[in-house]
């Protein structure tokens, strides 16, 4: 079987989405002027991620305070994420119904956060089962801290909600982390087939988040690769934030071989400070 060749257009579209959280046409001939502008700026994947204070379209410095724009004759108050020249391209590209969402300051969170968690994070509802004291403590975390966090506690106590709340806060500040579920991470590491280079993005991203770590027992191969990811992040002084219902020896047993489980637990203790969630 011949290997599949990824087209330049697909790579450009992927780079744009990774940088600014916006989906564009993979076929260059079908792109609008706004999409071409995004590709011109972000398509090569060499500019990192968008951050507040610069235009998403042309990376010129802008005033990021909220502003009012007219769309189809109706005023909309939005955070400034594009300059005025690029705003004209945006108006032509998007309909009035989805413009506000497209130029959101948290496009990745808007798309990826589970819908059931959004009203909790936006403080529209406050479930009594959540440990709000631990939730608030977790949300105080910033990348400037020397350690990440391990959110520990029973199911339903608010750990996953806290993870997505932290994700939103970080993206608002210009640093969108990578958040993986435990099963998703296991699948990715399993497909890497012991090649750490295949998952190098895990150990070089600014903030790595893993939900429900230990939910599925890891095979020795997956556990070994996970330890390498942790070790790489430890050596680079990059934070990791995880949630898990397992602690102590029970946590160690989720990673197959006894000594490997102990090594993972020790490295996690060096990388993270614990935050205990309790069911209310």
Strand order of the largest sheet: 4-5-6-3-7
Summed over residues and divided by their number, the pLDDT gives a mean of: 85
Order of helices and strands: HHEEHHHHHEHEHHEHEHHE
Helix content: 40-55%
Number of helices: 13
- Structural classification: alpha/beta
Total domains, how many? 2
What is the CATH level 1 assignment of the largest domain?
Alpha Beta
Instruction: Enumerate the spans where pLDDT stays under 50 for 5 or more consecutive residues.
Output: none
Structure, explained:
Helix content is 43%, strand content 12%. With 280 residues, the protein is an alpha/beta fold. The protein has 2 domains: 97 residues, no CATH class; 167 residues, P-loop containing nucleotide triphosphate hydrolases (Rossmann fold, 3-Layer(aba) Sandwich), CATH 3.40.50.300. Helix 11 links the parallel strand 5 and strand 6. Helix 7 packs parallel to helix 8. The termini are far apart. The model has no long low-confidence stretch (mean pLDDT 85).
Q: Layout of helices and strands, plus pairs?
A:
Blueprint lengths: L7 H13 L12 H10 L24 E5 L2 E5 L5 H10 L5 H4 L4 H6 L5 H4 L10 H8 L8 E6 L5 H14 L5 E4 H11 L7 H5 L3 E4 L8 H17 L3 E5 L3 H5 L5 H14 E6 L3
Parallel strand pairs: 3-6, 3-7, 4-5, 5-6
Antiparallel strand pairs: 1-2
Helix pairs in contact: 1-2, 2-3, 7-8, 11-13
List keywords for this structure.
single chain, 280 residues, alpha/beta, Rossmann fold, two-stranded antiparallel sheet, 7 strands, 12% strand
């Amino acid at each position: 079987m011949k290997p599949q060749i990824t087209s330049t257009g697909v790579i450009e579209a992927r780079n744009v989405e990774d940088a600014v959280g916006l989906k564009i046409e993979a076929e260059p001939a079908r792109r609008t002027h706004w999409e071409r502008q995004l590709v011109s700026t972000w398509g090569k994947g060499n500019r990192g991620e968008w951050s507040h204070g610069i235009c998403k379209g042309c990376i010129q410095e802008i005033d990021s305070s909220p502003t009012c724009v007219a769309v189809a004759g109706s005023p909309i108050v939005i955070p400034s994420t594009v300059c005025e020249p690029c705003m004209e391209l945006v108006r032509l590209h998007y309909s009035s119904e989805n413009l506000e969402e497209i130029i959101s300051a948290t496009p990745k969170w808007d798309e990826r956060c589970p819908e059931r968690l959004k009203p909790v994070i936006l403080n529209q509802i406050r479930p009594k089962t959540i440990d709000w004291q631990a939730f608030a403590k977790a949300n105080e975390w910033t990348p400037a801290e020397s350690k990440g966090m391990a959110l520990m506690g029973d199911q339903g106590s608010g750990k996953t909600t806290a993870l997505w709340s932290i994700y939103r806060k970080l993206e608002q500040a210009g640093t969108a982390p990578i958040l993986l579920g435990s099963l998703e991470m296991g699948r990715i590491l399993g497909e890497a087939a012991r090649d750490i280079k295949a998952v190098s993005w895990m150990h070089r991203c600014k903030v790595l988040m893993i939900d429900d770590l230990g939910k599925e027992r890891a095979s020795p191969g997956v556990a070994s690769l996970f330890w390498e990811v942790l070790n790489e992040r430890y050596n680079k002084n990059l934070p990791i934030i995880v949630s898990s219902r397992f602690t102590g020896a029970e946590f160690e047993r989720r990673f197959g071989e006894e000594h490997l489980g102990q090594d993972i637990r020790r490295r996690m203790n060096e990388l993270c400070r614990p935050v205990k969630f309790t069911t209310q």
